[in-house]
Amino acid sequence: xxxxxxxxxxxxxxxxxxxxxxxxxxxxxxxxxxxxxxxxxxxxxxxxxxxxxxxxxxxxxxxxxxxxxxxxxxxxxxxxxxxxxxxxxxxxxxxxxxxxxxxxxxxxxxxxxxxxxxxxxxxxxxxxxxxxxxxxxxxxxxxxxxxxxxxxxxxxxxxxxxxxxxxxxxxxxxxxxxxxxxxxxxxxxxxx
Length: 192
What we know:
Blueprint lengths: L4 H10 L10 H13 L3 H6 L5 E3 L4 E3 L2 E3 L3 E3 L2 E3 L2 E3 L2 E4 L2 E3 L2 E3 L1 E4 L3 E3 L2 E3 L2 E4 L4 E3 L2 E8 L2 E3 L2 E9 L4 E3 L2 E3 L1 E4 L4 E3 L2 E3 L10
Parallel strand pairs: 1-4, 2-5, 3-6, 4-7, 5-8, 6-9, 7-10, 8-11, 9-12, 10-13, 11-14, 12-15, 13-15, 14-16, 15-17, 16-18, 17-19, 17-20, 18-21, 19-22
């Protein structure tokens, strides 16, 4: 379908064909097509998103924002914001902000801030500060860890940095180099 100058001018003046009363058959068709392309934030929140996958061999440079789950098998250079879960089996050079993070055979250089759980397998490495509700570490972290609830360091885990959590479990064989702060309210009776 060819659009003439009048069509483009009308479209620009009315910000789409959907804003006019329907005249001809062509106007109705244009309205339907444009209405289907419009972004509706309420509809976006109701939709369930398929996971976004950055495959092996792919390299993304720049800021990345994802509404659903994100799987990184390749490489991302830049900050990542995700509304759901991020699974990394590749490389991330940037900060991560999300709900849950699962690192398996991953290398992350940057801070991780998640409102849920952070899990590192034995083959995962993080060079940056980590903040999460719960942390389960089987890999290596070089940076401070702040867990609002619990932190578990499995037998092959290593942390070079400070650890703060409400509940801490350190299994035999894990290595921690830094201070440990168990976040609990402590009261002393100074009257005796």
